[in-house]
Amino acid sequence: MADQPELQTTDSSEWSHVKETINMLYLAVCQIEATMSESNKSVETLTSAFTKLASHTIAIGQQAEQLQTTSELSPFKSDLIETTGEMQVNINASIQAFQFYDRICQRLDHIARSLEKMSGLMADGQQLSQPSEWQTLKDYIKGSYTMEAERIMFEYIMRGGSVDEALKIYNHHFEKEKAKITRCG
Predict the structure, then answer these.
(1) Domain boundaries, the chain
(2) What is the value of pTM for the model shown?
(3) For the chain, where are the alpha helices, taking DSSP H only?
(4) Rounded alpha-carbon distances, angstroms, from residue 67 to 50, 63, 73, 147
(5) How many CB atoms lie within 10 A of CB 56?
(6) What are phi and psi of 107, to 5 degrees?
(7) Nearest alpha carbon to residue 19 among 4, 8, 30
(8) Burial zone of 44 (CB within 10 Å; 0-12 exposed, 13-18 middle, 19+ buried)
(9) How far apart are CA 149 and CA 106, in angstroms?
(10) Are 103 and 76 in contact (CB under 8 A)?
(11) pLDDT by residue (tens digit) across 5-34?
């Protein structure tokens, strides 16, 4: 096996629920980071392929427009132009999906950073019991949200609401924001 750092084990007299929680939070951060890294490689490949496909589609469409047509070639030219138009619509839909993926990555990064900050707060015995430190953390997390639906969900959870209800509220407000953007766009 490759050189691995020697892991320190704690005996049961050193066990602490806070230490266990910190370790689990760091594990969650590592899992998020690894997942994002792996998926970014795939999306980079897809993005490159779609960029090339878009360029080729545009070039084919332009060449089709310039074709001198005879009565025999006219249906072919029309079909070619229609097909490149349909391809462009599908490429644009794919680009929107890539943008959605980018937003997911940004949100996962915010979650990972928040978990790291919370782990750091919990690891510091003096800060752990300071309400002002927890408020600073909550302000940081709330400040990382870009959507009103996220802020509303955050407030609901911070007031002691259930996860199921918070998700229902989030989805309701998310759909409202999405509909508003669609109407304006």
Answers:
(1) 16-127, 145-185
(2) 0.70
(3) 17-66, 74-123, 125-128, 131-144, 148-158, 163-184
(4) 25, 6, 9, 48
(5) 12
(6) -65, -45
(7) 8
(8) exposed
(9) 16
(10) no
(11) 555 555 556 788 888 989 899 898 989 998
